[in-house]
Write a structure and sequence with these properties.
heterotetramer; A alpha/beta (about 400); B alpha+beta (about 375); C mainly alpha (about 300); D mainly alpha (about 325); A: D-Maltodextrin-Binding Protein, domain 2; about 10% strand; D: MetI-like fold; about 75% helix; about 0% strand
């Protein structure tokens, strides 16, 4: 920081031409490293560089759980980056309370974010005590089941239209040497899949009660017991899948080695990179084909408090840029996610994306897990589910009981 | 200030390592030009004392004067001393010349002065041809000459030697011993010399301080230490082969002191008692093997016949083990007059040459 | 006793000043980082620190949660299994290899270099290599299956029950060289006369090793055990590179739990509590050793 | 030693042929191919093969193309040698948008390792020297804490150090990481140097003091020139240790200055589509290359470093 300031004063004192002084390097950290994600980030970088500034890419591989610690320790460690990706929601609460994040309210008002961001709950997640601290960039929904048409063809069964059919088709898939359900080994993947099963199979109301109100009665109820039965099925179906990363699991579906995968809409980016077409090569079932609701979590950019005036200005420009229609379109097409503004023309959107847009338009939305629960509690649930998936001897009842315990102590 | 006729003075110096007393309230004066030897077994504190004088160890209490100047808290380099170590302690990466001049360079002496002094020291010690060599290329004797040279160039008043000859073989040791003596005669500096070798001590010293347990037992001229040891420890430590010690009982018979050794009695009237002898006191009677004669045909104040148990030839002399009053007694005889094992010989000695110690405090009566 | 005032040494804080200046980094490291840092962490393990440290005391709540968390229990169990196996195997293999190399063989240097070289590699490199070799599709399992034994199964990294042994294989590959080296140094330190005496007495070689040589090498064994044990508690990089704690959380270890809690779950208090437990377990190993080693040395003066 | 031993064995073998019929005379006959030797060397060769296997697999895999890897036998030598994976690993492999391969991490590691090694050795050697020759009240206590501190799990101190560095304003900078490496290298290095300087005859030190050299004079003019081997040992320990570090690199640096190990982990674990095992192995080998070179060049000194650091406890 001191060096930056020194450099700035020096720069000012020797009166470098104005055009040069305006070009500011801004480091942006994020954890978008898979093929589709990287392509989407490149769009953002291109747009930002077009303003005359320079996007310094600080990609941190290994997913949010690896990247967030680095980001947080840099922000709390007094070495903040220019901007950083977070899942909006409660991950940044304490950083904001500690005064480490920049208040974007003035920019949001100037750009009229209140009117264009849809659903409005997205902006609510960025708001603490009436002030806005983040720029939402996309809507990500977890509630998708991606199916490989080729795999079902090979097995000689119809492509299922809902979870139960999928479960029923599993034996045939296995006979054909396929893994019915691809599932990466990282805890957040099975944790997320479980949450999808919960909101889809038990319904949005139960979901809100459990994750939002931490209602132990609901958590202990028969609906959740059924969800654990479904998870038990999923466990059996995913037994043969031994990959770690989510995109490797997606790759199993793309290549037809696996029947399907429960994964967020970012998986779509991978299908696109592989040159596959929705409806022809793969099928998507929102809400597992049961309850077509979508969570409205997603990614947002936060801007740590900086001292350097030039960099502050660049921050502001980036924040405004992120919600511009062109940026939204270019980014979200590549990323496979849904734009945060309703007025973006999504002609180019494919089959699956349109399905998502329709659900959004109808308002069948639920808050994301990150918006409802602290990362700590979510990680506990992730740990439980991933243990369940990897421990065949653990019964659904046991897991259910421990789930209730976690919900009881969650915040 | 104290009188300046003493070169080195120690006043009530003591040194503790934790609860261990290494030096106990020690006083010592070394006269100008004197050659003083600190002698004692290992662990007696003699090297420690030398290190204190050099300033390499801080004393716990007391004062040290060199040339009348209180140097108790001075740095070693400021004390006007030169020191020679047992392991030579030559700087391995420097040439002989570098070793000799290192201290002078630290003292920032002018270049010519350094060259002059090095040349003079090399001359005295006859190490001129070695000046450009490294210590690893020198023999043990040469190394020790260089080490002495390093003290020499410092042009100081007091030389400290810390067992300088212990690492050399017997022949070289004898050679260098003479050389050190010659050096002392030539330079007439004060020298304090630590050794555990009594021959070195006897041959070199003006005075010897025999130490034990951090205390100076006896400080005297070599002959006195040999002839009149103040206690049993000094008596046993000095002399090789060691003094015979016979346990006995002192009685006054007819107004004359007599030593009772089981069946025989030794008249002690020729012995120079410090105090009047007491009747019925348990004592240790010490007599050196060289002071006992055998089959000499002379009339000794005490004589007895004894049978030879073991014979140890030592070259020119032979040590003959016999028994007196049931206790072993060694006799040192010229080899040509040595008896055979099993012979019976007549032994005799003069108690005037003996030393008698009380059993209570081991000190000389 | 002393009568004169200058009998006593004067108080001189600037004596030996350079040595004190030279020791400033050490004093700062020990007092601020080692002692201060440890104290700070232990103190904050009793607080409800989330993303940022906060002095809001909650008593033993973090520890209650810690010992009620399955992931921690798995981590502890893994550490236990891994630790015991690592200690036993690296000691036995290391000693046997050292004994083999001590037979006045030819090419001793070559053999020693080969066995020790993995020790020069980082845990990340080690973890990634073994991840590849143990890859069920292309690695050992795949090769054996291609040879015709199609039911052959060896996929430790993808089987929650045995994943910790998969990590153990890599750890042993990396670490036995060190033990071998220490043992070899120990064997070389043993007086040749012991072997001569044993031969004269007609004692068979293995008996000489077991009853005479090994007891004489006690200090080497103690050092090796302490080194390995403190390394075991720290094991982190290897797991991260090889399995990232997976499958699921089956190969979690305490060091990773601490890191994840502090930085990923944004629950510093929990992380501090876990690291305090790690400290405690190290103390159980180190304090007796330090007492034996340093305490005894001091008594000898 | 080894040479003498081998000469002896060879000599014995020749003597065995020339042995007379009358009865044993001269050295005991020994055959090279005795059962003991077959067993001994057989075991050692097997063991060596096991230890070399991963190295072999790395090299082989890194020289294959992806199609060849997919038909799958990690042990088979490459049918068609390609250096493309190496080029890719070094120059073009991606983490996120940064597709400049491991080269960046390599230079970062160099920038981290060189000052860290120099600073840590400088501080620790002076420190060990002070502890060996210039003890003062409390110096032994600090040393004991330092050694015991070496066994404290890093996890206990990670966060306090974050705070310390932040307060000093050097969090995330190279300086910060260098200091962290200096701190954590201090116990082992101080021990190494202290033990070494203690073994230097004390009289040498005393002689230098009588000669008027002070603390720094003795260190630079007497001790340092005498101790080159131990400095080499320390350099070996530090270069391999710091080069191989992962945890501190992750915690205390920012992504653009990640050391090679961290970048390696990122490249290997950030998959785009299919895992490119050949590139991964090339990257892994590249990362391991520096310590391996140090290891094979230093030979006995490396062993001595381990023994010196470890055996004395």
């Amino acid at each position: 920081m001191r060096h930056a300031m020194l450099a700035a004063t020096l720069a000012a004192s020797v009166a470098i031409p104005a055009t040069l002084a305006n070009a500011t390097d801004l480091e942006v950290t994020h954890w978008w490293t898979s093929g589709g994600e990287a392509a989407a980030v490149a769009e953002l970088a291109k747009a930002f560089d077009a303003t005359g500034h320079k996007w310094i890419d600080g990609a941190i591989a290994g997913g949010g759980n690896t990247a967030r610690p680095v980001m947080i320790s840099r922000i709390t460690g007094g070495d903040p980056m220019g901007a950083t990706q977070f899942n909006h929601g409660r991950q940044t609460e304490e950083l904001i309370e500690a005064g480490l994040m920049r208040d974007l309210t003035d920019i949001a008002e100037a750009e009229g974010w209140k009117d264009i961001v849809r659903p409005s709950s997205l902006l609510d997640s960025c708001t603490v005590d009436g002030r806005i601290y983040c720029a939402p960039i996309n809507i990500h929904s977890w509630e998708w089941l991606w199916l490989s048409n080729k795999a079902f063809e090979d097995a000689g069964v119809e492509v299922p239209t809902n979870w139960d059919e999928f479960v029923a088709a599993a034996p045939k898939l296995e006979e054909a040497g396929k893994i019915p359900l691809a599932m990466g080994g990282q805890p957040w993947q099975s944790g997320g899949a479980f949450r999808v099963m919960l909101s889809s199979l038990a319904g949005p109301d139960v979901y809100k009660k459990v994750y939002g109100d931490k209602d132990t009665d609901a958590a202990a109820g028969p609906e959740i017991a059924r969800v654990f039965e479904a998870a038990d099925n999923a466990r059996k179906m995913s037994a043969g899948s031994n990959v770690q990363d989510w995109n490797q699991a997606t790759n199993l579906v793309i290549t037809g080695q696996a029947g399907g995968q429960i994964m967020g809409d970012w998986a779509q980016g991978e299908f696109q990179v592989a040159g596959q077409t929705a409806g022809e090569d793969y099928t998507c079932l929102p809400g597992l084909g049961v309850n077509a609701v979508m969570s409205t979590g997603g990614d947002a950019f936060y801007f740590p408090v900086l001292q350097d005036e030039e960099q502050k200005k660049a921050q502001g420009e980036l924040a405004a840029l992120l919600l511009k229609p062109e940026t939204q379109l270019a980014f979200n097409l590549k990323k496979g996610s849904v734009p945060v503004r309703g007025d973006v023309d999504l002609e180019a959107a494919n089959d699956c994306m349109k399905k998502g847009l329709d659900i959004l338009a109808e308002g069948r939305t639920i808050p994301s897990g990150e918006q409802l629960m602290s990362q700590d509690s979510l990680n506990q649930i992730n740990d439980l589910v991933v243990e369940f998936f990897n421990t065949p001897s653990m019964t659904a009842e046991d897991a259910h009981k421990r789930f209730v315990d976690i919900v009881a102590s969650a915040d | 200030m104290e009188a300046v006729n003493n070169s080195v003075e120690l006043r009530r110096v003591s040194l503790n390592f934790g609860s261990v007393e290494v030096l106990r309230t020690l006083d010592l004066d070394v006269a100008e030009g004197e050659f003083l030897v600190l002698l004692g077994p290992s662990g007696c504190g003699k090297s420690t004392l030398l290190n204190c004088v050099a300033g390499l160890l801080d004393v716990s209490a007391g004062q040290i004067f060199i040339k009348g100047r209180n140097v108790t808290w001075e740095e070693p380099k400021d004390r006007g001393i030169g020191m020679v170590f047992q392991s030579y302690a030559l700087y391995p990466q420097m040439t002989v010349e570098g070793n000799l001049s290192f201290g002078l360079k630290n003292a920032r002496l002018p270049r010519e002065e350094i060259a002059n002094r090095v040349a003079r020291a090399a001359d005295i010690l006859q190490i001129k041809p070695l000046l450009q060599r490294r210590p690893s290329e020198l023999s043990g004797g040469q190394r020790q000459r260089v080490a002495i040279g390093r003290a020499l160039v410092r042009d100081v008043d007091v030389f400290l030697f810390d067992e300088p000859l212990s690492n050399l073989d017997a022949k070289l040791r004898a050679e260098l011993r003479v050389e050190i003596k010659r050096l002392h005669q030539q330079l007439a500096n004060t020298m304090i010399y630590v050794t555990h070798d009594q021959i070195e001590a006897m041959t070199l010293a003006d005075r010897i301080a025999v130490m034990r347990g951090g205390v100076i037992q006896q400080l005297d001229r070599p002959q006195n230490i040999y002839n009149r040891p103040v206690n049993r420890f000094v008596a046993g430590f000095i002399g090789s082969p060691g003094m015979n010690f016979l346990d006995g009982r002192m009685e006054i018979e007819g107004g004359k002191p007599v030593l009772r050794l089981a069946d025989c009695a030794v008249p002690l009237d020729r012995y120079g008692f410090a105090d009047a002898p007491a009747d019925g006191r348990d004592v240790v009677f010490g007599i050196r093997p060289e002071h006992v004669s055998a089959n000499s045909g002379m009339d000794w104040p005490f004589s007895a016949s004894a049978s030879v148990e073991v014979v140890e030839p030592m070259g020119s002399d032979t040590l003959v083990w016999t028994r007196v009053g049931g206790q072993p007694l060694a006799v040192r005889l010229p080899t040509e007059r040595a008896p055979e094992e099993g012979d019976t010989i007549s032994i005799g000695f003069d108690p005037m040459n003996a030393s008698i110690f009380g059993t209570d405090d081991d000190s000389r009566l | 006793m002393s009568t004169r005032s200058d009998d006593r040494p004067p108080f001189r804080p600037f004596r030996n000043l350079n040595a004190k200046i030279a020791s400033v980094p050490m004093i700062l490291t020990t007092m601020v980082v080692f002692v201060g840092g440890t104290f700070w962490t232990v103190l904050y393990s009793f607080t409800k620190s989330g993303l940022l440290p906060r002095l809001e005391f909650v008593g033993l709540a973090q520890y209650e949660r810690l010992w009620g968390t399955n992931r921690w229990l798995i981590a502890i169990e893994n550490l236990f299994i891994f630790g015991i196996c690592m200690l036993v195997f690296s000691m036995v293999i290391g000693f046997v290899l050292a004994a083999l190399l001590d037979q006045k063989i030819r090419f001793e240097n070559t053999f020693r270099s080969i066995i020790l070289f993995p020790y020069a590699l980082s845990f990340i490199v080690t973890g990634l290599v073994w991840q590849w070799i143990l890859n069920p599709q292309f690695g050992v399992q795949g090769v054996v299956r291609n040879l015709g034994w199609t039911s052959f199964t060896f996929d430790p990294l993808y089987n929650a029950d045995i994943v910790i042994y998969g990590i153990l294989i890599a750890a042993l590959w990396q670490g036995t060289g060190l033990v071998m080296c220490l043992m070899l140094a120990g064997l070389r330190g043993i007086d040749e006369d012991i072997w001569k005496a044993a031969r004269v007495d007609g004692i068979p070689a293995w008996k000489t090793y077991v009853f005479i040589v090994i007891p004489m090498m006690r200090p080497v064994f103690v050092t090796a055990i302490v080194l390995i044990a403190s390394g075991i508690v720290r094991v982190y990089d290897l797991v991260v590179a090889q399995t990232s704690g997976g499958p699921g959380i089956a190969s979690e270890v305490p060091a990773k739990y601490v890191y994840d809690m502090m930085f990923s779950s944004q629950n510093l208090g929990q992380g501090f509590a876990a690291s305090t437990m790690m400290l405690l377990s190290v103390a159980i190993v180190i304090i007796p050793w330090a007492y034996l080693e340093f305490g005894r040395r001091r008594r000898h003066g | 030693m080894a040479n003498v031993a081998s000469i002896n064995t060879t000599a014995a073998a020749f003597d065995a042929v020339a042995d007379r019929v009358e009865g044993p005379a001269g050295p005991r006959p020994r055959r090279v191919l005795s059962r003991r030797n077959i067993l001994l060397y057989g075991t050692l060769i097997l063991v060596s093969a096991y230890y070399l296997l991963p190295l072999y697999v790395m090299i082989v895999t890194s020289l294959k193309g992806m199609p060849e890897i997919r038909i799958g036998n990690v042990f088979a030598p490459p049918l068609e040698i390609t250096f493309e994976p190496w080029v890719k690993a070094w120059a073009t492999a991606c983490t996120g948008l940064n597709c400049d391969g491991l080269s960046r991490g390599f230079w970062n590691s160099v920038r981290i390792t060189v000052p860290s090694v120099l600073l840590s050795i400088l501080i620790a050697s002076v420190n060990g020297y002070a502890l060996a020759n210039w003890r003062f009240r409390g110096s032994e206590m600090f040393f004991t804490i330092l050694i015991v501190g070496a066994f404290i799990p890093y996890q206990v101190m990670i966060y306090p150090i974050v705070i310390l560095l932040r307060e000093m304003g050097i969090y995330g900078t190279l300086t910060g990481l260098v200091i962290v490496h200096t701190i954590f290298g201090m116990p082992i290095l101080t021990l190494l140097f202290r033990n070494y300087f203690t073994s230097v005859p004390e009289e040498l030190f005393k002689a230098a003091r009588v000669d008027g050299a002070g603390f720094w004079g003795i260190y630079f003019k007497i001790m340092m020139p005498m101790s080159l081997p131990i400095f080499v040992v320390a350099i070996i320990i530090q270069v391999t240790g710091i080069w191989n570090d992962f945890l501190f690199g992750v915690v205390y640096t920012r992504p653009e200055s990640y050391p090679m190990t961290v970048q390696l982990n990122n490249i290997v674990n950030s998959v785009q589509g299919v895992k490119e095992y050949n590139v991964n192995m090339a990257a892994t080998l590249l990362t391991g290359l520096v310590p391996l070179i140090v290891y094979f060049l230093s030979g006995k000194l490396f062993v001595r470093g381990i023994a010196a650091g470890a055996v004395k406890g």
